[in-house]
Write a structure and sequence with these properties.
The chain has about 450 residues and is of the alpha/beta class. Helix content is about 30%, strand content about 20%. The protein is built from 14 helices and 17 strands. Helix 1 packs across helix 12, helix 5 crosses helix 6 and helix 8 packs parallel to helix 9.
Length: about 450
C-alpha cells in the first residue's frame, strides 16, 4: 500500500494506528471521596482482549483500585479508557471491575463533568449523586446459581442409567422453559439436594451464577384516557413544540400559561408523539406535585412509566433504574433527580412549574435541575419545554432576549372565567377589630353557612 503523504499539521493518531507494544491501556479513575482529580491506572492483561488490544472495562463502570500511600482498596468511577504512551513512573493496576453493566453513558459522563465545572464541586461527588445508592448496592437483587440441562444430555435422556429420583430431576429441569434455582428444582422434583448434587458432579446438569431481581412491583390498573380536544392557544403551542421535535435539534421553549390553561395536556400530547417515534421523555415536577392524581394522569395515557421521588426505597429505585436503562420505560416522571434518569433514547425533557425553588438542590452538589436539564437537552440535541403560570425571572429574561421560544396561553380551557380577586386596604377600614377585614369575615361566614370550607394563607414571618 502506498504510504500516505505526510500532513502539514500534526494530528493525534487513532487508537488502531498506535503500536500496542509501545503503548499501555490506561484507565482514568475519579474517586467519589478523597482528593479531587483524575487518576491513571493500568488495565491488567486479564481485562484485555489480547487480539484487538481493547479493554473489556468501559467508561461509566465502577472499579476497585489501590489508592493512596497505604494502597487501601477504594471504589472509583472509570471515566476513560485508552492507549497511552508508557508512563515515566510505575502505575498501579485496576484491581477489580465492580459492575457487569455500564452505569453512566458517555453523554452522562460529559454532563457530570460539566456540572463539576459549572457548580465548582468535585467530579466524584457529582457522580456519586447521579447514581442512586440503591443502584450502587444493587438493592433488591441476589446472586443465585441457575441450573439447566445441556442439550447433549437432553437428547439422550432415555438412554442414561439413572436412579428414579435422578430421572425425575432431569425431566423436571428439561421441561422447564428457563433455568431453575436449586430450591425451585428440588421443589418441582420433590427431592432433597442430594440427587441434584450427584447429577452436577457427573456433568449432567450445568450451572451458572447470575444476579436476579427478587421481584417486580405490581402493576396498577388505571382507566385509559384519550387525548383531549385543544383550543386555539393549545394547538398553536403544540404545533411549535412538534416543529422542534421534527427538527431533531435543541430548542428551549417557555410555555407561559395561566392556571387552568391546559399546559399539561399540551406537553402530554407532545410526549405521545415522542413515544410514537420509539423514544423516551423525562417530566420533572416539584416534589409536592407528585400526587396520585398527577401520576394517575400519566398512567392513563402511557403504558410504561416510572415515577422517581425521594420516598422510594433503594429496591424500588434500583428496579426503576434498570427498567429505564433497558428502554422499557416510555416516560419518566419525577422530582429534580429524575433529570439524571438513564434513558437510552431520550427525545424530550419537560419542566412543569419551572419557577419552583424546589428544583434547586440544597446539599452538595448544589445543582439546579432546570440548568442541568437545559445542558442535557443541549448536549443530546433535543427540545426542552419549560411550563409555568409565573415563570422565573431567569427564564422570562431569556425568552425576552430570544434565547428561549416564548409561547403564551392567556385563556383557560373551555372559556372558564378567571377567579375573582379583591384587594382590601385595611388602612381605609374604620373601627376594624383584629387582623381580618369585614369583607373577609363575611365571605367566611357565607362559606360556612353553605356547608363549605375556607382556607386562609398567611405570609411568611421571621
Amino acid at each position: 500500500m502506498k504510504k500516505s503523504q505526510q500532513s502539514l499539521f500534526e494530528e493525534d493518531p487513532a487508537a488502531w494506528e498506535l503500536d500496542a507494544a509501545a503503548h499501555a491501556v490506561i484507565a482514568t479513575v475519579v474517586m467519589p471521596k478523597g482528593p479531587d482529580g483524575e487518576f491513571d491506572y493500568l488495565v491488567p492483561d486479564a481485562m484485555l482482549d489480547q487480539r484487538h488490544k481493547a479493554a473489556f472495562l468501559e467508561p461509566g463502570r465502577r472499579v476497585k483500585v489501590a489508592f493512596g500511600r497505604g494502597n487501601r482498596l477504594a471504589m472509583g468511577y472509570c471515566v476513560a479508557v485508552g492507549l497511552k504512551a508508557p508512563p515515566t513512573r510505575k502505575l498501579k493496576s485496576i484491581a477489580e471491575v465492580i459492575d457487569a453493566e455500564t452505569l453512566l453513558t458517555p453523554a452522562m459522563l460529559r454532563l457530570t463533568r460539566w456540572m463539576a465545572d459549572y457548580y465548582l464541586c468535585p467530579w466524584g461527588q457529582v457522580l456519586e449523586a447521579v447514581v442512586p445508592a440503591g443502584v450502587r448496592g444493587q438493592a433488591g437483587t441476589r446472586e443465585v446459581v441457575l441450573l439447566s440441562v445441556p442439550t447433549r444430555v437432553a437428547a439422550r435422556l432415555t438412554q442414561l442409567k439413572l436412579s428414579a429420583k435422578q430421572r425425575e430431576v432431569l425431566e423436571a429441569l428439561a421441561v422447564s422453559p428457563k433455568p431453575l434455582t436449586l430450591k425451585q428444582l428440588a421443589m418441582r422434583a420433590g427431592c432433597t439436594s442430594g440427587p441434584i448434587a450427584a447429577l452436577r458432579k457427573q456433568g449432567l446438569i450445568e450451572s451458572r451464577t447470575e444476579r436476579l431481581d427478587l421481584g417486580e412491583l405490581d402493576a396498577v390498573d388505571v382507566a385509559r384516557e384519550s387525548p383531549k380536544m385543544l383550543n386555539d392557544d393549545q394547538t398553536t403551542a403544540l404545533r411549535e413544540i412538534n416543529r422542534a421535535l421534527d427538527a431533531s435539534q435543541h430548542q428551549t421553549i417557555l410555555v407561559h400559561g395561566v392556571t387552568g390553561s391546559g399546559k399539561t395536556e399540551v406537553y402530554i400530547q407532545a410526549i405521545e408523539k415522542v413515544v410514537s417515534f420509539g423514544r423516551q421523555a423525562i417530566v420533572l415536577v416539584p416534589e409536592i406535585s407528585l400526587t396520585p392524581q398527577t401520576v394517575g394522569r400519566f398512567r392513563a395515557r402511557f403504558d410504561h412509566i416510572a415515577v422517581l421521588h425521594s420516598h422510594l426505597s433503594d429496591v424500588e429505585r434500583h428496579r426503576h433504574w434498570r427498567r429505564i436503562a433497558s428502554g422499557q420505560v416510555q416516560v419518566v416522571v419525577g422530582a429534580r433527580s429524575a433529570v439524571f434518569a438513564p434513558t437510552p433514547n431520550l427525545g424530550l425533557i419537560v419542566l412543569d412549574e419551572e419557577h419552583e425553588n424546589t428544583f434547586k438542590q440544597d446539599s452538595a452538589p448544589r445543582y439546579h435541575a432546570r440548568e442541568v436539564a437545559r445542558q442535557r437537552a443541549l448536549a443530546e440535541g433535543l427540545p426542552l419545554v419549560l411550563a409555568s403560570a409565573t415563570p422565573s425571572l431567569e427564564s422570562w429574561r431569556r425568552a425576552e432576549t430570544g434565547e428561549y421560544k416564548l409561547l403564551s396561553m392567556p385563556k383557560r380551557v373551555n372559556d372558564w372565567p378567571m377567579p375573582a380577586v379583591r384587594l382590601v386596604d385595611l388602612r381605609e377600614e374604620e373601627n376594624r377589630r383584629g387582623a381580618l377585614s369585614r369583607p373577609l369575615v363575611q365571605a367566611i361566614d357565607e362559606a360556612l353557612r353553605d356547608g363549605g370550607q375556607a382556607i386562609l394563607l398567611l405570609n411568611r414571618r421571621g
